[in-house]
User: Fold these one by one.
Assistant:
Number 1:
Amino acid sequence: MKNINFCTLLIESFISYITDLEKFSKTVLEASLGITQSQIGFIGIIEPGTKALVFKYYTNTIKHLIRKKIVIYPDKNCNYGCTVIDKKMAVYITNKKLYPAHNCIKKCPLLGCPIPVEYFMSLPVILKDKVLGLIFLGNSKRGYTDNDLEHVKKIGKYFAIALERYWLEKEVKKYTQDLERMVEEKVKALKEREMLAIIGQMTLMVAHDLRNPLQAISNYSFLMKEAIKSSSSKIDKKIRKYARAIARNTEYMDKIVKNLQCLGKREAKLEFVNLQVIIGELLKNITKQRRIKIVTDVDNVQTQLDPILITRALSNLILNSIQAMPKGGTLTIRAKQKGSIIEFLVKDTGMGMDEEIKRNLFKPFYTTKAKGMGIGLALTKHVVELHNGTIDVKSQPSKGTKITIKIPAQTEQK
Ligand SMILES: Nc1ncnc2c1ncn2[C@@H]1O[C@H](COP(=O)(O)OP(=O)(O)OP(=O)(O)O)[C@@H](O)[C@H]1O
Ligand SMILES: [Mg+2]
């Protein structure tokens, strides 16, 4: 009796908080073995939402017979398993009689082999009519009595309460983590949006003030190039070099200003444009690289979109692809109507991206380039969203990158 009280106390103390299911199962099994003087035994647990019985703890004597996890339903061939788990009844043999009356089991489907027992006792761990697990005990030298059954049933009851609490706490923890993650994501998205809004305001101011002088420098730079070309007098090599540098840097500044201006846009100004015209114009303005082969496939389709924004988005993708192929390669540009979708594709055979870059590429100001601002893809995503579209990036290091933009086609002229 002393033994029983001790075990009950031990289990009650565990009910207050279980963190280690295995350790707890061990306590339950040891208490049950002690009370019934059994030599072998195991504890099985049914994980919520599954139909699998997982062996959580077992005596060393049957270690070799134990499979880690078994599916328990449906197993109508197993008299004993059926009775304990499906019919929710305890089964035990005493004095070679089996209660309730069933054919004596030769082979235990739970263990997948004959059970090396003379006498055994097995009972379900039940709470609110739901089976949460199973306690199996065997080979008590003195056989099993009704008293043993009552005591182990009591342990099973405590075990069930503790188990349910364990699963509930686990579920609450999971919900809390999910909630935390959701809040974190929302805050992050809000911050990004806020950041874009601030960039947008700054952008419009800066771009507005820079656009005119930049245009003037650009024009003068062009005129200077023309003047050098048509000049009859010999022009110093250095001056030619400086003129080229001015043109190159003006182009770079122009790209930044145009990108910032697009980032500041809150809506797309839709108009009917032909895809071939858009891509044609775009390609005219790309500084061609000798080692890069350009393949295009563009439908002759008229659709509604914001040509300035789409051109900016595509030219950023194209520029990224060119920058990703310093040793040359193939640049594929496609613009096609696929049913109710206009699909743009920019593909390169360049250096590709690793997982870290893929995770961050749409973040404003994320760049891996010495002379990059990291706004090309943030802007592209912004433009795609203004067109209610989607953007998908597939990339493999050293193989290349494929970026697909899909926007709803609005091809009917009203
Ligand atoms: N086609 C590509 N191949 C390989 N890496 C790419 C490609 N496109 C983008 N990336 C990676 O994603 C990063 C972000 O690209 P994004 O266009 O936003 O900025 P950036 O090109 O670095 O600078 P910016 O476009 O402002 O000049 C790049 O720095 C690069 O690491
Ligand atoms: Mg870029």
Number 2:
Amino acid sequence: MSAVTRPGLLQMVTSNILTLIVNPIIILLNFFQMNPQHTIPVIVDNGFVLSESRAILGYLAEKYAKDSTYYPSDPMARGVVNQRLMFDIGTLYQRLLETYMVR
Ligand SMILES: N[C@@H](CCC(=O)N[C@@H](CS)C(=O)NCC(=O)O)C(=O)O
């Protein structure tokens, strides 16, 4: 009896293939439900779901590195960090679009 016709092998292979197809679909559906924007990164922190990289960075720093120099509490120092965080999305991408994409 060949390996392919051995009883149980076909079911095992079929089951594994189905798992390989179905599991990613379930993961994807859960992800879409969790993050309606369908973008990465996304974090789940004790059930709290947050997308948008800059929001995630601010949240993580506020929650887990309160007095860190990465995200200082001093308003002027934090202002500079926020300016750097938002420069690309606020200015750089817009200029790139204007220069190279929009005609
Ligand atoms: N502004 C978002 C942008 C996120 C974003 O566009 N991520 C890309 C991958 S780097 C993505 O998920 N693209 C899929 C899509 O836009 O559907 C952030 O900073 O998190």
